[in-house]
Design goal:
single chain; 167 residues; mainly beta; six-stranded antiparallel sheet; 13 strands; Cupin domain-containing protein; RmlC_Cupin_sf; Cupin_DUF985
Length: 167
């Protein structure tokens, strides 16, 4: 727990609505106009954004989705399992971490509009990652659904949805 507090303090991380802690560290100066973004977006978006994201084994990142691809970059700590449910209902997962020879990957892309959640593998552990989004992240592009909504849409995944939603 000491390591977690040190990282949260040194990087000035704040609680994230989906779970864990975060801090935006990059937002490009350039923007993309609404007419060039497509019908899913309203308003302008920066070219790209990046955050630090710290997750602990005492919490999880709840199922959510955004309108853009999100690239996860592993930095430090225990591996993270990312649970993904695509729009067609296909479940998959990826494990990001530094043990490449064990099948972990240090970088993973969650595709735009896929539902995803994440957990740290191991007890009493943490993981520090970075997340890069392009076009840049805006909370207008963020959807944190209620458990019942996801289960009604994907009943075959009710167990995993129940495990990684809070309400």
């Amino acid at each position: 727990m000491n390591d977690i507090k040190k990282i949260v303090d040194q990087l000035e991380l704040l609680p994230h609505p989906e779970g864990g802690y975060f801090k935006e560290v990059y937002r490009s100066g350039g923007t993309i106009n609404e007419e060039n973004l497509g019908e899913d977006f309203s308003g302008q978006r920066n070219y790209a954004t990046s955050i630090y994201f710290l997750l602990t084994s005492e919490s999880f990142s709840a199922f959510h989705r955004i309108k853009q691809d999100e690239i996860w970059h592993f930095y430090k700590g225990a591996p993270i399992k990312i649970h993904i449910i695509s729009n067609d209902g296909t479940y998959s997962f990826a494990i990001i971490g530094n043990e490449i020879e064990s099948g972990q990957t240090p970088q993973f892309v969650v595709k735009a509009k896929d539902w995803f959640a994440a957990e740290v593998i191991g007890k009493g552990a943490y993981a520090l990652v970075g997340c890069t989004v392009s076009p840049g992240f805006d909370f207008n592009d963020f959807e944190l659904p209620k458990r019942d909504m996801l289960i009604s849409r994907f009943p075959e995944h009710s167990n995993i949805i129940t495990n990684f939603t809070r309400v």
